[in-house]
Amino acid sequence: xxxxxxxxxxxxxxxxxxxxxxxxxxxxxxxxxxxxxxxxxxxxxxxxxxxxxxxxxxxxxxxxxxxxxxxxxxxxxxxxxxxxxxxxxxxxxxxxxxxxxxxxxxxxxxxxxxxxxxxxxxxxxxxxxxxxxxxxxxxxxxxxxxxxxxxxxxxxxxxxxxxxxxxxxxxxxxxxxxxxxxxxxxxxxxxxxxxxxxxxxxxxxxxxxxxxxxxxxxxxxxxxxxxxxxxxxxxxxxxxxxxxxxxxx
Amino acid sequence: xxxxxxxxxxxxxxxxxxxxxxxxxxxxxxxxxxxxxxxxxxxxxxxxxxxxxxxxxxxxxxxxxxxxxxxxxxxxxxxxxxxxxxxxxxxxxxxxxxxxxxxxxxxxxxxxxxxxxxxxxxxxxxxxxxxxxxxxxxxxxxxxxxxxxxxxxxxxx
Lengths: 249, 157
Known about the structure:
The structure holds 2 protein chains of 2 kinds.
Chain A: E1 2-5, E2 9-12, E3 17-20, E4 29-30, H1 33-44, H2 52-60, H3 69-86, E5 93-96, E6 100-103, E7 109-112, H4 116-154, E8 161-162, E9 166-171, E10 174-178, H5 185-201, E11 210-216, H6 218-221, E12 228-234, E13 240-247
Parallel strand pairs in A: 10-11
Antiparallel strand pairs in A: 1-2, 1-7, 2-3, 3-4, 5-6, 9-10, 11-12, 12-13
Helix pairs in contact in A: 1-2, 1-3
Chain B: H1 2-23, E1 31-41, E2 47-57, E3 62-73, E4 76-90, E5 97-107, H2 115-121, E6 130-137, E7 143-147, E8 150-155
Antiparallel strand pairs in B: 1-2, 2-3, 3-4, 4-5, 5-6, 6-7, 7-8
C-alpha cells in the first residue's frame, strides 16, 4: 500500500520510503521504523487532532518501546523537516496547542492498494518519465560516436604527413628512390642519368646503410632549365643527410 | 541505474574527447633537425654554397635556424655564419603545408656574405621573406623540406 501526498510525494508504507513521484531514479528516502509508524498513524488519522498520549501509546508502547513527550516532539520535528524537504511550500503536520497534532487538511492524500492496476499505473509513470532521459543519453552517445568516427577518418593524426618514395634503381648497394611520380620509362631514364651525374660529380660513396632520394622537376626532365635535388642519407651512427641541390640546371 | 548511465555517458564522452584531441591536427609542430645542403645555381656553377643547417620548429609557432658554411660566387669565397628567427603557420588541414616568414637575422662576426647574394640566391634566410613549405616524413624518419619549386633538402632528426 502507498500514499501519494499532495500529488507529488510517493510514500510506500511497507518499505517506509519517501520519494517524489516524478523522480525516475531508484533513490528514495528511507524512514526509521518509528518515523514510519508515526507518519502512517498521523496520515491514517488525518482529519482529527491526535493527542500526545495517543501517539506514545500507538507508536511506542504498542511495540514494546517506552516513549516520552520529549522523544515524540523530537521525532515530530524530524518528520516535519523530512516532509519539508519534499514539499517545501507546505506544512504537513499542524500543531494544535494543548491539544495535539494533526495532518494538515490542506494537503491531499491519495491512498493506493498494491493491486495489478496500481502497479501498472505506477510502472507506466516511471517508464514514461525515464524514456526522455534514455533517449537523450542514447542520442548523445550516438552523436559522439559518429563525430569521433568522422574525425578519425577526416583528420590525419600526424601534423607532418608521411611520404613514401618509389624505388628508382640500385646504385651499387644503395637504393635510389624518387620523390616524384614518374610517368614514363623515358622520364625514369632521365632521372637515373641525373642521379648518376650528381653521384659521379661529388664522388659520393655508397655505404651499406645509405640510400638516395632524388627529385627532378618537370623542366629538368625535359631538358629545360629546372631543379634537381639528390639527398644522400645514411643510417649509420650518427645519422646524416647531405642534400645536393641544383637550381636552373 | 541512472548513476550507471551517467557514469557510462561521462566516460564515453571523455574517451571521445580524448580521441578528438588525439586525432585532430595541431597547428604547430615541434621539430629539431640538421641538414647539410650543397646548393648550385646555374649550370656554370656561378653561385654555390655548402651549409650546415640546424632548424628548430617550436610549438609556439616560432622557430629559428642556424646556418654555417661557405658561399662561392665566381672567384670569391665567403663565410656564412648567422641565425634567423622565423614564424610559421599551418596552411591546410589535411597536409603539412606551412607558411614560413623570416622575422630577423643575426650575423656572426665571421659572416661576410654580401646581402645582394643572399637576396638573390638564398632568400630563405632574408628577413621579410615568406615561403610556402611542405614537410614530409621519409621512411627513415628524416624530414623532406619541399618548396614550390620542388624538394629542397632532407633534414635529419
